[in-house]
């Protein structure tokens, strides 16, 4: 087990009965001027928007709407202007990971006078850790990213074909997690979000730290939970237990607990972020297509014991030896993803040409530092290009 520091200050209000009673005070504790941020309108359809307006009736509420999936820097720039113009005190972010991610960066941008992209690309005179950040309160409506309890954001710049992770000094101050709000999430986004959770767990499970049984066991339990409940949520969208386990699982997968004592180099995420940056595909779907191919590519004499443990503990598999169990576990992963109705190839998400593969692989290796970041297995540009290529067909899996 490696040395680590752990601290997380987000207050969680989980379940059916917190929002109407507690939202006002959770926001008003930070003063009166609120920037309400949301996406393309799902919160209006569900009635949540009206509930929020009612709860905040005596506060001054300004709005930023239209934050898109794979949130774009233009929304951050708009939010920065609003936050400065109205001297906003607190952001109330209502939506999925994209809305939360954008809100956390707007919360920093209020205190920066230059272009908000500087803060994401960490290229200005000041980085986000040098400046203040508005408090963010959120109401989560989609289980996936863990943004509700971490300091990260992932922001896209469509002009530059870049999607970058950025970290602020603070996690959200208060997160309201009501699983009922996710009943209306589409099958596509439910499957994508569930796989995003699984991928966060896998990125932290396949790790070079040794003898870290506490973290390994926590991750295995959470993997079993998402494997069990994702199909239930797809079949019965308003199954509370399924939505509750997916929601808390999403939060717990990426709030720092599952990385404690690890070495923490991620691999599949930087490779997926290039797919989203170039083709604007759904993050969790990109991860689902890449992950079984990545597993197959990094399985070796050195890694097979870990994959065999994954097979035994997560999938309850047996076999004649470690290699056998490891291979079955990778196939089981693929079969589970397929059962969620996720397209299993890049052409399935309308990526039909290999022309950008080398360029994307170069960016993934550069941004993710994949050939030397202490991730599970180092990957070169050729390895990543081959991984994209492997994802064009179902060869080797069907
Ligand atoms: O915009 P609206 O109308 O709200 O619709 C959204 C959006 O179209 C819809 N939706 C959300 N809640 C709903 C709903 N539809 C019906 N009912 C509801 N209750 O779902 C669509 C997708 O929303 P989005 O926020 O984009 O999804 P998700 O939560 O999966 O977020 C994905 C983004 O988070 C980043 C990803 O890269 C991607 O940009 N990530 C953030 C991370 C972090 N902050 O730690 C880590 C992750 O690895 C990830 O990279
Ligand atoms: Zn993710």
TrEMBL record:
Keyword tags: Oxidoreductase
Ranges where the Alcohol dehydrogenase iron-type/glycerol dehydrogenase GldA domain occurs: 10-179
Superkingdom in the source lineage: Bacteria
Annotated ranges, domain Fe-containing alcohol dehydrogenase-like C-terminal: 190-392
InterPro entries attached to this UniProt entry: ADH_Fe/GldA (IPR001670), ADH_Fe_C (IPR056798), ADH_Fe_CS (IPR018211), BDH-like (IPR044731)
Membrane-spanning segments: none
PROSITE patterns: ADH_IRON_2
Coiled coil (UniProt feature): none
Short name of one Pfam family: Fe-ADH
Protein name as it appears in the record: Iron-containing alcohol dehydrogenase
Source species of the chain: Weissella sagaensis
């Amino acid at each position: 087990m490696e040395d680590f520091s752990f601290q997380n200050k987000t207050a969680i209000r989980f379940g059916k009965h917190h929002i109407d009673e507690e939202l006002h005070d959770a926001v008003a504790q930070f003063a009166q001027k609120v920037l309400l941020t949301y996406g393309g309108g799902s919160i209006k359809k569900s009635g949540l928007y009206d509930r929020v307006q009612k709860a905040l009736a005596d506060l001054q509420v300004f709005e930023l709407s239209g934050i898109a999936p794979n949130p774009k820097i233009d929304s951050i720039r708009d939010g920065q202007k609003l936050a400065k113009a109205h001297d906003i005190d607190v952001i109330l972010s209502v939506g999925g990971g994209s809305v939360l991610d954008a809100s956390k960066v707007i919360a920093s941008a209020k205190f920066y006078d230059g272009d908000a992209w500087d803060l994401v690309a960490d290229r200005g005179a000041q980085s986000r850790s040098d400046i203040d950040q508005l408090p963010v309160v959120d109401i989560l409506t989609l289980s996936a990213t863990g943004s509700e309890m971490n300091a990260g954001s992932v922001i896209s710049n469509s002009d530059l074909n870049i999607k970058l992770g950025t970290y602020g000094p603070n996690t959200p101050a208060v997160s309201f997690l009501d699983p009922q709000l996710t009943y209306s999430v589409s099958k596509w986004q439910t499957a994508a979000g569930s796989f995003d959770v699984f991928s966060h767990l896998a990125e932290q499970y396949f790790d070079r730290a040794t003898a870290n049984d506490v973290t390994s066991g926590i991750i295995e339990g959470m993997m079993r939970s998402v494997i069990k409940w994702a199909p239930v949520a797809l079949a019965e969208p308003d199954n509370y237990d399924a939505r509750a386990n997916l929601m808390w699982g999403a939060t717990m997968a990426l709030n720092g607990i599952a990385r404690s004592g690890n070495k923490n180099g991620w691999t599949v995420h930087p490779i997926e972020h290039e797919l989203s940056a170039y083709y604007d595909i759904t993050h969790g779907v990109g991860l689902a297509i890449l992950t079984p191919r990545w597993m197959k590519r990094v399985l070796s004499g050195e890694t097979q014991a870990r994959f065999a443990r994954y097979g035994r503990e997560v999938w309850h598999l047996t076999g004649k030896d470690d290699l056998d169990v490891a291979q079955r576990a990778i196939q089981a992963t693929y079969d589970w993803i397929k059962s969620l109705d996720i397209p299993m190839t890049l052409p399935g998400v309308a990526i039909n040409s290999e022309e950008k593969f080398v360029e994307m692989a170069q960016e993934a290796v550069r941004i993710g530092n994949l050939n030397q970041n202490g991730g599970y297995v180092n990957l070169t540009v050729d390895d990543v290009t081959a991984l994209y290529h492997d994802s064009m067909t179902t060869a080797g899996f069907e």
